[in-house]
Amino acid sequence: MSRALRIEYPGAFYHVTARGNERKAIFKAKENYEKFIGYFESATERYGAKIHCFCFMPNHYHLLLETPRGNLHTILHHLNTSYTNYFNAKMRRAGHLFQGRYHAILVEKDSYALELSRYIHLNPVRARLVSDPSRYAWSSYSVYVGMGKGLEWLEKGFILSQISSDERRAQRGYEKYVKEGARQKMERPLEKVVGSTVLGSEGFIEWVRARWIEKKDVSRDVPALRSLVRWPDLSMILKETEKVFGRRTAESRRVALYFSHRLSGVSLRQIGKFFGGIGPSAVTQNTRRFGDRLGEDRGLSKRVDRLKKALSE
Fold it and tell me: Are 99 and 21 in contact (CB under 8 A)?
């Protein structure tokens, strides 16, 4: 199983979803929904979460979440684990309630928060549970349009401010905006997500790539991030290696294999095929042996470091 998104920083903004295991219901009674809302409130108090909007569907939930402390995992662990423990005790069951890990998309807040909030609030309408989102009790929509009470912890101000600075005008404008979305066949904002990971402008994606991905050692078991990383391809690695270590020499082959394994993001099987049909174990063995040499040969290590820098530019 691939790892979940781990791009976390203070002020990050996410669209989060979590589904019931085997798509089974995670809410079976009114008190279940109310209990989960209570965990949302405690997440704001204990972990500083800013919850902008939410929608609880029978077998999954949607959430727009901001993390001033850069603690996405802690917040989601609190929500999902606390509710699972409650639900299991209530229903006298055991085991996982949610299907695998939650899914979180990093979002450019200023550009997409309004559109995503409409998408979330229209979930019950798309599922044909109600014809009007204001008739659905288990979302933040009624608070947005001034029909619901309570939920003082809900951060509705940012999204409404994109409609109007006047609260009543913002509420009316937001209601019109959402209902227009219900009448028209709107493009799903999540269709614009890059690599199942980031939603934003080209500038935002470039910033995420440079600041949070390319400076880290992104491993192969995070496939969602591969499309965001500028992996050097195998042909480029071989070409650049031969400039430094000689054309078609045994050493250039060893170095190219090493960097193909470490930098390309390509599977071991594909690497082996590119280098003449060698097996995956031969690729990893070359990496291990060459890595040992780098630790012993300072001159070789310096040449390899310079080549790595060229390949990473």
Answer: yes
What pLDDT digit, counting tens, does each position of 65-87 carry? 999 999 999 999 999 999 999 99
229 close to 215: Cβ distance less than 8 angstroms: no
CB-based contacts of 55, cutoff 8 Å, min separation 6: 61, 62, 120, 121, 123, 124, 136, 138, 139, 140, 141
Q: What string of H, E and C letters represents the secondary structure of 142-158?
A: HHHCCCCCCCCCCCCHH
CA atoms within 13 A on the CB side of 30: 2
Task: Return the structure tokens found at 118.
Answer: 């409409």
What are the start-end ranges of the H helices in the chain?
30-47, 72-91, 109-121, 123-126, 141-144, 157-161, 167-183, 202-208, 234-245, 250-263, 268-274, 280-296, 298-312
* pTM of the predicted model as reported, rounded to 2 decimal places: 0.70
Q: Largest Cα–Cα distance in the chain?
A: 74
**SS3 of residue 186 by DSSP:** coil
Q: Domains in the chain, start-ordered, CATH in brackets?
A: 12-207 (3.30.70.1290), 231-312 (1.10.1750.10)
**Cα–chain center distance at 225:** 9
